[in-house]
Amino acid sequence: MSDNKILASVARVVDVVVDESHPFFRNYGDIGAIRYRLLDSSGKESDLRSLDLAYPIDRNIMSFPLAGEVVQLFVGPKAQDVVDQADTSKIYYGSSIAIWNHPHYNAHPDPGLREGDPNPGPGVVERGDIYPMLPFMGDVLIEGRHGQSIRMTGVRANQQLLVNDQNNGKPLTIIRNGQKEVKGPQIVKDFTEDGYTPRVEDINDDRTSIYLTSDHIIPLFPASDARNSFLNLGPLNTDLYRGAQAIINSDRVVLNARKDSILLVGNEYVSLTARNTHLDAEKRIVMDAPKIFLGRNAFAFENSPRRIGPTPDNQEPAVLGGQAETILLEINDALLTICNALSTVENPDVWIPGAIAAAESVKAALVNIEDQIRTELKSKKVFIEPNI
What we know:
five-stranded mixed beta barrel
C-alpha cells in the first residue's frame, strides 16, 4: 500500500496486540500494534493475516483503541538497524476518532459486511451506564472508558456549582475513579438512563474522588461528624472551609509506607474520627504534649468552675503509679511503727513514753507524706475525666 494513500486516511481497527499472548505477537515492539482496514477499501476483516499493521504514534500518552473503532493513520520513519535498510517508513495511528462523541466505545462497524455487532475485544464489555463529562469553558478533560476522569477547571458556569464570582479563574482539579451508580430503574436527580447525557462529578456519590482546590468550598458529607473532643473548637467542617486543600473520598483509604514512615502534620489540628479508633505498635506508643487529656470532660474542666475534688486547677490529674506506691508504702511503714510500738510494750511505765516517741516519729513522717501527696502524687501532664 502506497504511503500517499495512507496520508490523512482513516481506518477501522480490526485487532489489537496488547501482550505476548496474542497470536501475532513477535516481540515487545508489537505491543499496541493494530490490524486495520481502510474505510474506503473492500474485503473481509475476518482474515487478519491479510490486513496491514499500524503502530502507536505516541507511547508517552497511550489510548489503546478497541476493535471496531476508527483511527487516523500517519506515515513516519521507523527504527533502523544494520540488517534492514530497505524500507525506511512505517505506518502509525493516533487516538480513536470520537464518532459517537463518547469516551466509552466509538464503534463504526462496516454496514456492508453485515457480520453482526462488532466485538470490541477479549474481555471488553460494552456498557450503557458510562456517562461523558459535561465540559465547562476552557476545561482540560481526560476521560477513561470506564468512568475515570481528570478535570482541570476554574471557570464559572451554570452547572459548575463549585466555582462562583469569588473564585472564578482559580484552579480546581478533580480526579475521579467510578461514576455514581444507580441500581435498577431508579433515577436520581439529573441521572438519566440513556448513557449519553453529560454529567458533572459529585464527590458524595462518585466511587472515589480526589479534589485539589485553591479557593473552593467542597460540599463533602463526612462518614462521621463526631467532634466532641473539640468542644466547639477545632477546624471548620469540610463543607464550610474555603481555601487550598486536598480531599480524598472513597469507601476505604489506605496509607502504606513500605520502608519508612507516615508523617501526618497539621499546623493547628490533626483530627481522627471513627466508630472505633485503634492504635497498635510492635515496640512502643509515645504521646507527648504539655498537657494530655483523656476524655472530653477532662479537657472541658481546664477552664471550668471547680466541680468535684480538691484539685486547685479544677482538673483531675492522673495518679503517678510509682509515686503512689512509694507514698503508700511510707504510710504503711509509719502505721507498722505504731503497731509494733504498741504490741511489744511489757512494762506500763515504759509504754507511755514509747508510744509518745512512736507517735512523734509517725507524725513527722505523715507531715512529709502529706507534702508528697500534694506535690508528687498527681501528674502535671496527664488529666482524666472524673467519675461524675
